[in-house]
Amino acid sequence: MLRRQGAAKRCNPVLGHVTLVWADGDPQSWSAFSGSCLCTGTPVWFLNGIHQYTRLVAAKDFDTQDLDVSVVGRSFMITGANSGIGRATAVAVARKVGGTVHMVCRNKDRAEAAREVIVNESGNTEVYVHIVDMEETRQVWEFAEAFKQQHRTLNVLINNAGCMVHKRETNAEGLEKNFATNTMGEASLFSYRCGMLVQKLRADDLQSEKGFFDSVMVYAQNKRQQVVLTQHWAKANPVIHFSVMHPGWVDTPAVSKSMPQFHRMMGERLRRVEQGADTVVWLALSRAAARTQSGQFFQDRRCVPTHLPLAWTHSPAEDIQAFIIQLDALAAAIRSQPDAEPDAHTHPATPETL
User: Fold this and answer.
1) Is 219 a residue of the active site?
2) What is the pLDDT of residues 22-48, one digit of tens each?
3) Which of 128, 242, 321, 354 has the most CB atoms within 10 Å of its CB?
4) Of these residues, 53, 128, 192, 219, which one is catalytic?
């Protein structure tokens, strides 16, 4: 999550108080710890999750007054806002009088249906849909440029969209689809505007080209990349407040589809989507969150370590630097590609507003 600190004179005017939250309930952006350790038989991850991520422990220490704030005149952008944690976040934010919500979604029909639900539940008509495929980096750049031209400010950016593709596939730009959506797309959305925590960062294989392709392990790697990016951006952009969060284990259609065995095993212990969205909303709205150090990792409104005990997930500084350099190089390579023929239904240069 990104929030502006102090004056914004060093930041692109479209930013404002940007909130970068990496998480959601789609297969697509589920838990930062992902299911990888469950699949590999590591008991630390599962026992830690039972203790911290289930429905019973959600909200046990929350201060209800933290969200008693005004959002008049503030704007919020949420990627993947048509389902799961993304939609629950959009509903919670839209219920605050005076705020504007921008939903960034891939599917027009599902986005329209979700917007109708959000407006009906919140009573707020200032909810707008933008059709963008976060998997396609060029689309993300074009949308970001169009949004910057059409809107003077953006106060909070919530990077919630993501995916878990079970076979190794590449997008039109040659990027592996999980990496393109979960890391490159979200990174591009932020960087263009501003001028798995059980997995160690693999700077030598960002797009999972080496060895056997395990979608859950790849998803966990993407989550580790997101944490590293958040920490890097926090250092590089001191006037913006960045946060990354874990929603807990949440009962969403995406989790049911992508991890059916885990979903059946956990059953009623999984959190409701509103519980999964709570920390996202808290980071986006509360003054208490704004007072925390930028670049931190949150769970249930508390700052927590970014590495599990005995997980061996710490990366040396040179690996982190190599990751950032490779990400920049990939972005430069995509920019140098000839323009692809735009899809009339999803071209972001003229985002559809409902």
Assistant:
1) yes
2) 444 333 333 333 333 334 345 555 556
3) 242
4) 219
